[in-house]
Design a protein that fits this description.
By secondary structure, this protein is of the alpha+beta class. The chain is built from five helices and five strands; from the N terminus they run βββββααααα.
Length: about 140
Amino acid sequence: MADTLTAPSNYIAGEWRPSTGGDTYEKRNPARPDEVVGEFPSSTREDVDLAVAAASDALADAEAIEHPYVKASAFMEAASASARRGAAASAQNLLRRSLAAASFVRDNYHRAVALISLAGKYRELELEAAETELEILEKMAPGA
């Protein structure tokens, strides 16, 4: 029998919280119905509302950062955190947002640092830039 994953909490606003309803449910392996693969929170509408509000607040905080280099750096760190949690699609999206922010960096020093950091982050997270991302990167290159 495989190890059972127990995660009877929701991750909301940077902390693990039980469902507001307090209920959980078991998920079973469809190939082996007698094998429980995990216990999960039975989330309520209130849990969803809390999660959406927390995500909106976090996005507002990120959007409120005025200097594009700082904003790009914040998105890169969020991408790393997403990748550590196994959310590659989220990490890719956050790197795109970082690239968008970095494209507004005007001084050459910070632009070069942002480009090097982005390239390193893509490599570190083992993600590949899409064609549109590569086009933006080429336009950002000094002398472009």
